Amino acid sequence: MIFARNELFWGKKAQEKLSKSHVAVFGLGGVGGYSVEMLARAGVGELTIVDFDTVSETNINRQIIALNSTIGENKTELFKQRLKDINPDIKLNIVNDFYTTGEFYADFAIDAIDTMRSKVSLLEYCVKNNIPVISSMGAGNRIDPTKLYISDISEIHNKKAPFVSNVLYQLKKRGIETGIIVVTSDESPHVEEKISEVEHIVTQSGEEIEFTKIIPSSTPFVASTAGIYMAYYVIKRLIG
Q: What's the whole-model pTM score?
């Protein structure tokens, strides 16, 4: 049995509960990709996976489906094949699109989005619709996975870290100052060179989105660990 070793730890009833659970993961990069992998291997029965992007060469240093042989392929399609290979019975809802806003339901949501507008929109939707969510805040520009920790947004140690402060500011404007769990880091962010690029995206609905994206440094260690932390927290909550 695929999940026999899981059951030795948390028991058959918990495994059955996971098989009936639905988790939505937004963003399949270095963080979200490892979250999806762990959720599937834990035995979550239904996953909704959302990402608009294809694999690029610069993804190879940290993303689980990024290989020289997969450059240019859709991340959602690669994960569809991979997750079905892990668990042929898993139910998958594939959304090959850029999340801006929109209704969805799941027992839990994982926010691994790295663009401000989409991230805040997703978190606001989850809070207003009582969908438990855990959000990644602090995997880029870092090297030390031991500095990661899980907390409520109201208890983040360093609220002045640039990305964190921007997210918290946008959420506060929407009346949200607590009630969102995050994985974040005590490590000071570092990048050798500041690089930005203009990204132009056309959503499946035809909406055109253009924004300037700051390119963070990244290492193989932190994003993957953050993704595993998030999956661990979700599984822990789902099985009680």
A: 0.96
